[in-house]
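User: I want to check something. If I give you two sequences, will you return the structure for each one separately, not as a complex?

Assistant: Yes, each is folded on its own. Here is the first sequence with its structure:
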Amino acid sequence: MTSAAAALYVPEIAIDVVEPGRRARKGCMAFDLGRDVEFSTAGLESYAFARWEPVIYDAMVVAAAIEYGDRILRRPPQGWARHIALRIPVHDPGRWRSRSVAGRLQDAAEFLTGDYWTLDFTERRSAAPAPEQSPLSLPVKTRAVLPYSDGMDSRAVAGLLGRELGNRLVRVRVGAKSWDQPRNGASRVPFATVPYSVPCNMPNRESSSRSRGFKFALISGIAAYLANAEEIVIPESGQGAIGPALLNVGHAYPDYRNHPLFGRRMAAFINALLGTRIRFVYPRIWSTKGATLRDFAALDSGSDWQGTRSCWRSNRWSSVNGKLRQCGVCAACMLRRVSVHAAGLSESADTYIAVDLGADTLQDGIVQGFTRRTTAFDEYAIAGVLHLDHLADMAEPDAAPLLRRHAVLLAQAMDLPQSEAEAQLTRLFQRHAEEWKSYLNALGERSFVKRWVRARQ
């Protein structure tokens, strides 16, 4: 295959979602609802604080099918997009096929993943099971739903909003600790968890996982619908919400998973499907992660941030002598370290694998006993440092045209005047640049991180 042909190559796959005991059509891969997706009874019951309708189950199946298609088909070696066709059984195919629902669903999925999606809906042969638990009544009217993970931003924003909203805030667990339900004194606060998993254990599966944003947004939308809430709070601070969309890496498609442009599309789809008026809100989008952490740390419960995890690296690559650590050098870890410094806080010495970023070399900064340093580890480190440095470049005058263009998109997505969006965006990256420079200076002149930054100047 020539380089030109490789650049135009778009991998394709057709997947039939089938009920247990059914088969896929000839030439289609089967996604078996009895084998390839695991629904948790307890997970479903975490949503039983209100009415239960078949469309809720169908929406979860759609999210699971999109996740499966995204993970099962590798992206091309040159280029990005794939064509993924899904045929999904639902209780009410007319609802899903309607132009208002199908068009908005396709728009949201394609915008998020950068792929071409074809979605067709057929009628289920049998009704799906409902949660066994009787509906639970919420103690007060729900105001908002917040996707809640092990990350610093979600923990901080849940704390900040929880002080104001109390039990009017429903958290949807999207991290690893599915049953870690927060408490308010002796009572559990309203909480739900993703009620299914898609194992997808193929060795060569796609790792970019852009569809995770779709899953978490839809699951949060379902929780908002069931709890009669009109707001879904995206807790990400500015660098994490806007940075990945503004500065994509290599040939990768921009990452919009926490961006208002994607939230706007998901809200349009959810509202068309469920007849709601749900909107996504971004209370910390004009704040740096450091500012968010500083505000949270000032609360009585503010020390809770130290139990959060930011690292992109999987657990099996991030342990030392049997103790789980964060790598300390990927883009997420680097932003965490800059933010902790900006907030005037500190972390324990055993938080990271790369303990000392002020060392002469990366190897010198890695804790003794870590034996899994690979080329990929080094590449994550270089990319992490340069990503934060490139974000700081957005504060330079040369970046003003790029910020202005992005401000136009943000203004449309957030119903803001363009001038306000541009001013907020400019201030955000100025603050990031200040925090980044302060952190670099604190590392000292010997730091390998400072040398890497100088090398690109």
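And separately, the second sequence with its own structure:
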Amino acid sequence: MNSVAASPGALMKRTGAWFWSLLRDRCVAVCRCLAFCVLVVAGLGPVLTAAIVVVAVADVLRALGGERAQGPLLGANGHGPLVLLLALGSLFYVRALANLTRRLAGAWCGTVIARPYRPLPAGRETELGIRLKWLVNDPASWRDLLWLVVDACGGCVVVAAPPAMVAYGLLFAVSRRSVGNAAPGNHDVRALAIGLAVAVAGLWLAPRALAVYGLLARTMLGPTGGTLMSQVRHLEQTRSETIDAGAAELRRIERDLHDGAQARLVAVGMTLDAAGQLLDRDPAAVRSLLAEARESSARALAELRDLVRGIHPPILADRGLAEAIRALSLDLPLPAQFASDLTGRPPAAVESAAYFGVSELLANVTKHAGASRVWIDIRHTGGMLRIGVSDDGSGGADPAAGTGLRGIERRLTAFDGVLALSSPPGGPTVANLEIPCALSSPKTSSC
């Protein structure tokens, strides 16, 4: 009897807990809609700033057209720098606001929005000029500004409807009077029911409004289809070329080991075996064979060292890219002028790709260019490692001709780097390697 009597009470308790949980979730959704409304209001400032800038530009165009600039922005009052500063500051503010919207849309609307911005040049994060150029040249910055306009015109309607319905319904229910003709204190049951129904409808609508708002934000603030497809195609090409370059490098190492050091070590073993058979009968022949074995082992050791240098030169690991390339220039059979302003070190993989790229370029100069002088210049500016190799030779270098230039391009592609080559017939030849990277401090070996 007790258990039977307790069942209705337990059922009511569970029902009450479910109801309060549902009501709490709906109230939280309404509060989140209100928060998005606050973001809409916060975005009106940059929109007004954009309108001011448009008026200012129109004022300048009138002045250029022969009319006297009468506007208060860029005209006679000379407020142009102030307007420009206001516009640039608004871009920083717009991006922060857009990023906040993306984060809240993921947490509150269940809509994950990736950031579509171009990467900031590595190592230049603290330079104001670089950041301003990065902001202005990024199409996503202007899409963020467009989002604020769309948000103010349409997005606010979506997220403002549930809080407005709840507030109006509760106010209508508390007043308990019909609109326009009910006297204060008139207990109108019908008005109470209508007010509560409107408030409940607002609570029901809140999570759905958040979902719609999240989809709208993702449409405007997420990466575009063209951006994603271009990134996918670039990554596929980069991955394929990196795999091919790695496989070719492994085949080269295997071939060098098989044809060089391995063959010599096998010969050393055979020589030692023959010396062992002649040890008791012909000591003089044994001494000759041992000398031959020692010479073969020395050549094998030298080939192994050359192979190791071909994989990753010790001077590159110990002293860095600039000194390693300087050593290459000193070994050239023609005069070389070397200059570098590197104050730190790129990542080890970038150093290796740049070193072997320069090594291949210098080998081409020595073998094919017929040059009398070569110039090597290493710089790091704007988050980009730039290495120039130029000569006064006969020119005519072409990556499509099957030379090592195509291999340099494959190496650089793995790091989003490029090889820019100018080599008209008759010369001169100018090759520039550009690899985006940051520099570490001079005391470390990677960034």
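Because they were folded independently, the notes below concern the second chain alone. The mean pLDDT is 76. The first strand starts at residue 336 and ends at 340.
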